[in-house]
Specification:
The structure holds two protein chains of two kinds. Chain A is built from 13 helices and 14 strands. Chain A is an alpha/beta fold. In chain B, the strands form four sheets. Chain B has a six-stranded antiparallel beta barrel. In chain B, β7 and β8 form a beta hairpin. Classes of the chains: A alpha/beta, B alpha+beta.
Chain lengths: ~375, ~350
Amino acid sequence: MQHFYFDHNATTPVAPEVLETMVSCLGQVYGNASSIHYFGQAAKQKLEAARRQVAALIHASPTEVVFTSGGTEADNLAVLGTVRPAGRPSHLIISAIEHPAVLAAAAQLEREGVSVTRLPVSADGTVDPEDVRRALRPETVLVSIMHANNELGMVQPIAEISRIAHEAGVLVHSDGVQALGKIAVDVNALGVDLYSMSGHKLYAPKGVGALYVRKGTKLAPVAFGGHHERDRRPGTENVPCIVALGAACELAGRRIAEESERLASLRDRLESSVLGRIPGTGVNGGLANRTPNTTNIYFDSVDGEAMVIALDLRGFAVSTGSACSSGAITPSHVLTALGLSADRARSSLRFSLGRSTTVEQVDALVDALESSVAHLRRISVHA
Amino acid sequence: MSGGVDSSTVAGLLVRQGHKIVGMTMQLWNQRRLPELVPESSGHGRCCSLDDVYDARRVAEQVGIPYYVVNFEQQFEDQVVRPFVEEYLAGRTPVPCTLCNNYIKFDRFLEMADAVGAHHIATGHYARVRFDEASGRYQLLRARDGSKDQTYFLFGLTQKQLARTLFPLGDMVKPEVRELARGMDLAVASKGDSQEICFVPNGDYAAFMSAYLKDKGIEPQATRGEIVTTDGRTIGEHQGIHHFTVGQRKGLGIAAKDPLYVISTDPQTQRVVVGGNDDLLCGQFVVRQMNWISIAGVTSPVHAQVKIRNKHAGAAATLHATADPTTVEVVFDEPQRAVTPGQGAVFYDGDLVLGGGWIG
């Protein structure tokens, strides 16, 4: 059976160009980038070249890029590293639709005595910048709002949020994991002080990511060790994966304009076919200001969990909500934050397209959806 | 697939027989809900622990089948855990495994089977099902391994559910199952058996109740009351009637020259009534919400063996129809000890399960 992948927001395959660069580095460049000798210098050169590639994609200076083990570590470093040293009382503003890496870091700070405001989102899935203004307090240290949401693709008004926060002298972090490579990212235009990135959402391997830290931003480390990454992130640098991230950033930069357009047209084709052919369906969240590859569709009176399994058994990988540690599906906090009923949230699926997605795959998916939905609705009538 | 040896062996057996199968584990209860109940050590033998899911996934990989964890936590809480707690608070002694079979394993799970296009469900229960041409009914029979027989918990199964259910272990004894598992080189072949009530760690249901009530914001002390004798004397106090079940001797905290047993609990007055062993004997009782399996029902009196709790050996009795077709009156040949409201009563003719219902 052929398997088609419609879950690129969960992770992406490593791009062939990235793989080649990474394997050659893995095989040849084994020095420790901190060593002073020839081998160390070779590794250091690769490391810094990758840093320039990452910086270029987001219009930052290379010295502002800190490599991490991934998006989760970048988020933790940004949130914990700015709020913890600020003393008490202190206050953190996040949104209700953040990734668990930010939600759980905020919850940890709460246990440490920090007060946390979780901003609601509108029915289309965006944070109102005026809500940020209203939530600001004299002791607010950081506003952390994601750039694009993983389940809906909604792009948040980060530039405006930054302007409002900065007027009050408050730092801004944005989790850019789901935006990078899908939409143009310019940290200066966004005005953010911190920006999280992840390799494996960008056709690089798992286990590598980066945090943009605007020059002059006070950031305390969350782990302790050597003097790597300007004392911000200790541990011998994972050079092959970092090199892969650099290559992936360069590739993304070259392809973004063309690929965005292609993905948006495939996404639109998927949406219009589903909505046109399957009754009782609709798109969750807003239609404007989305990443081009993501759509979240509800199928009235269909159990999303059953649908994911039924589609997987037919060779189509899609997702719903987020998986817990056992692999079971839990109701999506993002969809419930939109104000959708638990029933609607349970009957929704996320489709995230990527470089390998073709028109033929999209059409085959729509056929499978049509017959699966019909089957599931037939049996739920009997049940 | 619970991750235990029984359901794992079922998966292996069915693959060996050439069936096309999909493995599923039902995520029923999240241990993190009541963290105070979970000891730091072993994760095995408790409901839906990550270790058990790991084992089930490993077996699915070994026997080469697709495998999924399905989340039935909400249904399990609504239809098993909450009724379990409410029953205790109402002075009855519930059987959560039967509720789980009725509403989750042979209902919600069957719906999931439908969803993925599966014709049958197979479980590791020790019981047998067969179709009887003469009556046109699916019959439920005790397992060949009497010590493992689980039919007491399966009395709620409908004809529709039985028609689509396979119990491949019904004709095997446990040592044979372990032997088969070893033969298939399953990683779980020597894993220990699971405990009785999966979501209650160490069988301490009173501790579970207290933690659950606290989680729901209900003050457990509100159920405190008096301990009285059958002739109405108050002889002590208790911490909540949910700590007591009919026939219980331990935990009363009262010294008496003859052993004292719980005879009944009264949710209205929060009283626990105690008495001697003879006070526990009961000759007849009523069974409600009857589900008939191997026969369509009783019109005239029928002799049967009646089991009034899982560990009960069964006793000879006569079943009498009542004006209400969902209710049956049971008259024992010899009075039985501790007929407990909330428990199931299951009627047998030899190995055949005639049907069952709830002791009202």
